[in-house]
Amino acid sequence: MSKNNDDLFKNVISHTKEYGFVFPSSEIYDGLSAVYDYGQLGVELKNNIKTYWWKSMVQLNENIVGLDSAIFMHPKIWKASGHVDGFADPMIDNKDSKKRYRADNLIEDKIARYEKDGKTEKANKLQDDMNTALAADDLSVLKALIEEHEIVCPVSGTRNWTDVRQFNLMFSTQMGAMAEESDQVYLRPETAQGIFVNFLNVQKSGRMRIPFGIAQIGKAFRNEVIARQFIMRMREFEQMEMQFFVKPGTEMEWYNYWKE
Predict the structure, then answer these.
(1) For residue 184, what pLDDT is reported?
(2) Do 43 and 103 have their domain in common?
């Protein structure tokens, strides 16, 4: 981010707090990283956006209905969707600065510098190597690429790195009256699964015929390891989404319809 853009961003953040749009959560107790509260004007603005979206997406369409699914769902759902095993970021720590980074972001920054310096072939080779390593979930190769291309920590300027490790982005908690009897459950990282598992319930109870859509507004939670982008990247946030179900073979027709 350029200095001018950085100054503008800081001014926007200051303005939102001064005029009651957004406050850092738990501020009187030193705050909580990447968690924010919406103030008196912020909550009105957010509710206006949700109301407008709900009216235009649900109430003005005969073949789209609403849903409000629970935040807690059976852990088997997240296992089946791949979130338990695959909803993770490859992270690496610098031992000198104690800062944590996404390994792929560090490599992408290096690729951008290669391209800026006119080293296109080198950039393309590094991009291909990284994509191959990510596809194979080979964390040792990511570490080797960081070392081979002498990628330094933006803060300390050193190359004293830990191994690359996967950090799951789902928050987990325990459900049960006693710890020894409890089962692990997750705070949903997205709202889509609540729509998918209720597809038949909605279709049968509403006598819906394909094509039709199911819309939802709800909270989602992601354990962002690096979250420094104000309300654009938070650990607790709201999603507005609509899943539209179509007959096989008509996907592109409806995709173009909604795109327009």
Answers:
(1) 84
(2) no
Q: pTM of the predicted model, to two decimals?
A: 0.74
Strand, helix or coil for residue 147: helix
Q: Is the pLDDT of residue 254 over 80?
A: yes
pLDDT over 90 (residue 48): yes
Tokens of 223: 């354990």
Handedness of CA 39, 71, 192, 228 (dihedral sign): positive
Q: Evaluate whether 224 touches 169 at the Cβ level (below 8 Å).
A: yes
- List % helix, strand, coil for the chain (3-state, nearest 5): 45, 20, 35
Burial class of residue 21, CB neighbours in 10 A (0-12, 13-18, 19+): buried
- Indicate whether 24 pLDDT > 60: yes
Residue 152's domain is classified under what CATH number?
3.30.40.230
My answer on whether 69 and 194 are in the same domain is: yes
* Residue-range definition of the domain harbouring residue 231: 20-76+188-259
CATH number at residue 36: 3.30.930.10
Pairing of strands 88-93, 171-175: unpaired
